[in-house]
């Protein structure tokens, strides 16, 4: 591909991401208003957590995966927004003083800094619950079977066997618990942890598209390969940003892994090794999409974007 | 009814509650094992939160409400266990230092005392998510429509417009937030708060039974009246225990409302007034069940139990 064509594609992806972000933010805004609740403070904290920026990468993956099967963006939007609610809740709880103790998220004060800890805990709980409320709505899937499949998949991806389990392993990797045996992490351990902590939701994003689109088993398998590759790329890119990034640009504190004494894949592979692995994963992700032809152009470009993002 | 017959009924209820508790505990144990997760510490914290006692009143209400329509106990068990997961998660998060800061729950150390705060936050998140994973399983309802209705109802009852919203109002009633205007609570405010904080899940218990049983609109309305009355009775009984109870018997700290400067209905009505209101609510609950005949005997007795419980 020529450099000009590649630049066009990158610009198309940025526009599509921006359009998706606007749609998802509007949908979440409406969903928080509908879920209502009697406490303006709680609603404000949920809005702070859910509406203040973010690339909306996971919703984009839902919408683009579903589009492979001809599903309209508006039809994929509730599932996309539900997933983003789960992502946002996880950030709120991860940032709490008892967890990662972060003051800054997306360039803004974290929820417990902008409000208080109790409000942050409840806002996170409210967003997690809202995700399932959204998936149970009539417009969330073509029929009750699809909606139940979306609920089952999201609960699996988000729960103790997925994201929450990965976060727990991550705390253990920081040596939080005396029994955990800090410092002995292998590449396999770190990959397992990250496959759960960040990979599970990225994987679900593509799974949701497959459910909405009624994908065949072979199509699902291709999307799974893609999802696994971008999940790994996402985490390696994140680790690189933690080593090399600038807090102002990244929008959150950097250098935290080293400060926490936490082993990352970048430690084990070195920066050049990590960059080579990223390139390999992008190729793997793109190859997995080959069968979908030109409908998968933006998803393929998204793999590039994930590997090379600056924040 | 003679005293002897009444004693028989009370004994029958205790036996039925005990049987239900055993079934639900076994189901939750299996569900936590299935949801697996790679962290033994997280699983242990979830088990501590979910399996260490409790009356299992909400699951009992699901099972007995469903039984009004001839639904077998085993068929109502997943929905019953899912609801109990939500109840248990809410206790874990409510007990956190940033919330009610309790050391004791059901006579045991709270999860953040037995483990640590981060683990308690994640164990709560894991149990909330597990509830929806359970409801999405094939055996959770007669068909996908029923399962989606159960998901929708639970999410509504548990979220910002239900339990989480009520908990937020409760924190505000304690004067936690400068803007909240402490001390001006009316009986209407307190009832609204409590209808959300504890009433919403009790209400859902009966709603779940109606969904599983395919109840008519009139039958649903009767169960709703029952649920509203026992919800109010539950809270007044709780407030009385906080005033009059003994920590050893109650299994958690008492006198906390007064210490927090929190107005309760017992403050507004006085102890004799609260007792009279309890008696009225029990009669209202029992009357709502009249149309179900003898099938509702245990639910009617449960209203008594809720109003007069000692812990």
From TrEMBL, chains A, B:
The keyword Transferase applies. This is Farnesyl diphosphate synthase. Its EC number is 2.5.1.1, 2.5.1.10. PANTHER family: FARNESYL DIPHOSPHATE SYNTHASE (PTHR43281:SF1). Belongs to the FPP/GGPP synthase family. Keywords: Isoprene biosynthesis, Magnesium, Metal-binding, Transferase. GO terms for molecular function: (2E,6E)-farnesyl diphosphate synthase activity; dimethylallyltranstransferase activity. It comes from the Bacteria. Its cofactor is Mg(2+). It comes from Ancylobacter amanitiformis. The keyword Transferase applies.
